[in-house]
Design brief:
Blueprint (H helix, E strand, L loop, with lengths): L3 E5 L4 H8 L13 H4 L7 H8 L8 E5 L2 E6 L8 H4 L13
Antiparallel strand pairs: 1-2, 2-3
Amino acid sequence: MTGVVVVPAVGRFADLATVLAPRRPGGEACWCMSYRDSRVPGSGRADVMRAECEREPGPGVLAYVDGEVAGWCSVAPRSSYRRLTRSRTLPWLEGPEP
């Protein structure tokens, strides 16, 4: 039987790096930054995500299979996704706009 556990990425940057940049954990990679802030150069994306992993609510969740990190989902408050705050294709539907 395989055990699957999904937990917040807070405090788990090393595991996030394993999923997002397996060949170079601190190097240039996408790091799921296109909606968060695409202005961040590739060389600075790991640092941004490291900082996100140090505070609540974190940048998303990590999935573990039998104790080994196996997946990632970028899920966070809409306000943390810079490209979505003023999106015309995905308008704000409820509550006050940020």
